[in-house]
Amino acid sequence: MKTFAEFGLEPKVLQAITELGFEEATPIQEQAIPLAMAGSDLIGQAQTGTGKTAAFGIPLISKIAREEDKILALVMTPTRELAIQVAEEIGKLTRFKGLRSLAIYGGQDIGRQIRGLKRKPQIIIGTPGRLLDHINRKTIRLDDVQTIVLDEADEMLDMGFMEDIQTILKLVPEERQTMLFSATMPPNIQRLAQQFLKNPQHVSVIPKQISAPLIDQAYVEVPERQKFEALSRLIDMESPDLAIVFGRTKRRVDELAEGLQKRGYSADGLHGDLSQNQRDAVMRKFRDGSIDVLVATDVAARGLDVSGVTHVINFDLPQDPESYVHRIGRTGRAGKEGTAWSFVTPREMDHLHLIERVTRHRITRKPLPTMAEAIEGKQRITAERLLAMVEVGELNEYKGIAIQLLEQYDSVQLLSAAMKLLTGDNKDAQIELTPEDPIRAKRRGGKNDIRSGRKPNGGYGGNRSGSGSSSGGGYRGNRDNASGGGYRGNRDNASSGGSTRGGYSSGYGGNSGSGSSYGGGYKGNRDGASRNTDGRPSSRPSSTSTRPAKQDFDA
Ligand SMILES: Nc1ncnc2c1ncn2[C@@H]1O[C@H](COP(=O)(O)OP(=O)(O)OP(=O)(O)O)[C@@H](O)[C@H]1O
Ligand SMILES: [Mg+2]
């Protein structure tokens, strides 16, 4: 493992890295940083949570001088939340160097962004739709850009982004460095690479299993109508510090968040029909721990890095295996362990097996948590809270009444009653969810396969639904229809199981792990899913809440 000092970085950048607490480079950083510093175009693939952001961020900022007053680097991300997060990380890395960076994404007041642009940032991190908007208004000019990064490049390739990205890339000088990063690199990435990259170096730090090694993956077979009960038992049993629950559609997410709240959980929902203010507020609450459970569509599947996420629960399986990999990758990051659970309805078992095949990982079947396990889990938490309170002390005001009560009642009886009150059992709240259709496994490969190069984003034979051609804009790009009319490519679902450990050694301090194995190409192709870009309200059909929620992406 290399230390960052070995990369020949300037002191101010090194200082920022130290401040971030990074001691050693992760494998992707070790491989990508020297190549990127040397100016190569790059395709970088490494498991979720292994520091790809810094792998491109460090070289990118190293190339820019503080005195510059033009946009010299552009990072594109598929979602607004990710743009914000990457901008923050770049902000931290440039803290001592004093570069200016700005996040540009849909849903935020454009006037505010224009004012930000007047401060002459050298680095822009944005979602494609809003970027184009600024380009068209001439508030952003890309004539001087020297470095372009597509974070979650494969995701950005999905229809709806491809054209925007092509438009943007064509506006950037030919003489530039272009880098693509993701944990998954379906073969169709090659198309974009051929078009826009020059002799790219491939850096792949992917062991045999594509999912991150520190994630314990399990699944539960559960009929659709019992899923909510299963979820609430699972949360009780596991008592996650922070959990992300993925639902297939916006409606699903709304209903789940509301149901969980009614049952007394501290939960909130995130999807693309919320205003950006609402989205920001939910993310803020989740990051600072004022909610424990984030219920989300795939808008939260890619790139988000929230420390303390111990559990990912796929309430609905994702449509494609890549999405599974990214969703569960919200836990088990930076050398920490995590647990992923997936709910699979009996008719979705084939789909689960597809995910297992593509990710080359067996997902362990587990029984539905029993009521007894759920109660035990809740009581354990209550007892922990109670004991923490004893530790803190400062109970003098309560001691008088406690002594009085103990004189009159049995101590076990009293404490049990207090525990019951504290546990706050809201199990009576009846929660009814609108049922979702099961996800069906699609054949991967075949003549429509993207690997054949015939269809840019074809996915497994023609799944990807025609999405709403909504007024003005609709979706661009071809995208075949998919089953279940009106759906646009939903792709969530996921399952998980079995403890997979070992393999890749992260190299972050304090994490066991064994040699990183490089190279294993992973060949899964993914189906495309549609989504609208931001900054184009017209392309977002109204009341899409019952559709699979891919359009949440971007901006
Ligand atoms: N060298 C390092 N040492 C310790 N922690 C690191 C190092 N590099 C990055 N990290 C931390 O690891 C976490 C994950 O990093 P990052 O978000 O860049 O992962 P990623 O590979 O982009 O994952 P994803 O595929 O999910 O987007 C972040 O909290 C980051 O600060
Ligand atoms: Mg990332």
From TrEMBL:
MF terms (GO), sorted A to Z: hydrolase activity; RNA helicase activity
Protein EC: 3.6.4.13
Comp. bias (Gly residues): 456-476, 499-523
Motif, Q motif: chain positions: 2-30
Keyword ATP-binding listed: yes
Keyword annotations from UniProtKB, A to Z: ATP-binding, Helicase, Hydrolase, Nucleotide-binding
Ranges where the Helicase C-terminal domain occurs: 214-376
Domain of life of the source: Bacteria
Region called Disordered, residue ranges: 432-555
Domain DEAD-box RNA helicase Q: 2-30
InterPro entries: DEAD/DEAH_box_helicase_dom, DEAD/DEAH_RhlB, DEAD_box_RNA_helicases, Helicase_ATP-bd, Helicase_C-like, P-loop_NTPase, RNA-helicase_DEAD-box_CS, RNA_helicase_DEAD_Q_motif
Entry-linked Pfam families: DEAD, Helicase_C
Composition skew (Low complexity), residue ranges: 536-548
Family: Belongs to the DEAD box helicase family.
Record's protein name: ATP-dependent RNA helicase DeaD
